[in-house]
Automatic annotation (TrEMBL):
Chain ranges of the DUF6436 domain: 74-212
Top-level taxonomy: Bacteria, Pseudomonadati, Pseudomonadota, Gammaproteobacteria, Pseudomonadales
Cross-referenced Pfam families: DUF6436
GO MF, any single term: isomerase activity
Key words, A-Z: Isomerase, Membrane, Transmembrane, Transmembrane helix
Keyword Transmembrane helix recorded: yes
Ranges annotated as spanning the membrane: 36-60
Coiled-coil ranges per UniProt: none
Name of this chain's protein: Thiol-disulfide isomerase
Amino acid sequence: MLIHTAFAALNQSIGPLVCGKMQCYFLVWMVLMRIWLRRGLTLLLLLIWLAVLVWAYWWFEARYVKSFERPAFFQGEAVSPPFAPGHVQVVHVWQSGCPCSAGHEAYVDEMTQRFAQQGVEFARSGQRSTDGLTDGLKVLPYWPIPELWANWPGAPAIAIWDAEGQLAYVGPYSDGAHCTTDSSFVEPVVQALLAGRKVAITRQDAVACLCDLDPGEIAIDESNSSPVSEP
């Protein structure tokens, strides 16, 4: 097949072949070498591209996919919610510029608006400044992380309290770099609390895409009074 391809290429490029046996074989060999070289380079580039993709995936996994270790940091009964009890309360713990945050932004804005219409109260924490935040996060009051939670495992993450002020959920939004209504861990939690059911997911580890909070951007509430401030 390659020989026919080579002869066809020669006929197209230099016209009908008129050569001795050795000359024709040499010309065919040259054409075949060019075909093999071209295919070899294509295959090599494809392998390099695949290797880069594998390395990038491995680097992302190694750097950002880690355990959200709830038992090591959280004592839910010791931390009051941002607002007075009476409504389900949610705190978005955020760090802009984090690759993990980008895949959560649309969902976080949408769920905040949707559940706020059902009486859920929202605040934000982690990054204090509004630089790089979505419009939905910018308008939320800021809640300094209590001193008991000073070693927060990472962002994006969320804390949810029931209407009685008891911590119901603390952890990541989902187990991946993106979050939707279907993949969200927190969607069924908020829905259950609004329906009056009890939820307590505060002591199991979870693996998710997380970035460390910038120490220069975090406000720690040493009084544990859990105040909220204007954005």
